[in-house]
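Let us work through a complete example step by step.
Step 1: write down the sequence.
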Amino acid sequence: MDNPQESAPKGHARTRSGVKATRPRSSTKGPLDVNDAPLASPLSLPPQRLLSPTGQPRSRTPTSTTPFPPSSPARSPMPTTTRRLTTTTLPARPRERDFSYLLRPEIYHPLTNLNTPPAFRTGPHQPSPDTPLPDLLTAGHFRGAAIAAAQALTAAAGTSPGPIDPADHARIFDLLYTRLACLTLLDGGTALAAHEVKALGDLSSAFYYAVQDDAAHLVPWDLRVLCVRLQALGFGDPRRAVMSYYELAREARAAVAAAAGRHDHGGMEVWKARLGDLGVRVAGALVEMGDLMGAAAHLWGLRPASGGGMREALLWLHLGDFEAALGKWRALREVVEDEMVGVNEAVCLLYVGKMQEGRALLESLVDSGRSSHTLLFNLTTMYELCTDRSRALKVKLSEKVAAMGERADGWEKTNADFKL
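Step 2: predict the structure and record it as tokens.
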């Protein structure tokens, strides 16, 4: 008679130690990867493991007592895990969200023009007080645009066009993005933006998700990305930026897959571009943390869409071989019309002893309407190296750029741009 114990299936059979698995280990993908995304990140570990030198996740201790949105369940400034919200986590019926906490005047700092050169304070190119906000942005009057955005957010009753509806999140977030973005373009404005952005609280909380429309986020993507770095600076926690970028990357990967399922090729390209942008921002966050080796490994792991020659030229410049870098920049300038190429070529000319040629190159860029902070800073530095009377050249340069008006890249400048 058969033994029933021998014919019964065994629930837990011990595997012999001498037997090896015949199936190779499956490859894993990080949150910055998609099947054919423009990234091949070497960061295969989750951000918690990446950021901890001991390989252990770090606790999320609140670093600020700044109040969060009234309806937000979050109590910690650290971002919570991105999740798909269902009717079990949100009310069954949609309700209006009250964003009046973002309309308080005490949130926004006053801005002055004390550090603006005299040539930019007066003249025919100065905007009038009633200039529309879009016109201020188009003309590069970022200080005026930041002031106008704050005034619109905090408008009182009886003013024109009047106060904003606290439930009009689209208008509120559009003005808030303009305010924060313009502040980052001003000298010393990033610190103010990092302080003002605290009013938003935890953007990954359920409060900022819509009940309908597949639980879409109420905050526009560009504002969410901008807030990552600003909140990391505001709360004094640079690790927060890397973790938040990874959370956004997971959302972007899910959006790529959803667009592929709908055969929406245009949507796929948009989200792939956003995913690639997040990869570069992760490298920037690692640099700000002081992890230069990690940033370099991460950047070299990205799949470049173009610009390989420019990366090589930057590498030679970083290594200090200015002769080799100069040749690369000259070759690039023949095929690429880019201000950065011209500025780096001028810097190489300075280091190989051809200062006058480098100065002439930078001045030609200004004559063509270019006026970035990097260009002006390097040109004024050459003025300091060429003569003891560099201040007169700097003042003349500031007047020249001011007279360019809307032709200049970002018209409004500060004393720091001209080293005055």
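Step 3: interpret the result. Confidence is low (pLDDT under 50) at residues 1-28, 36-68, 70-78, 80-94.
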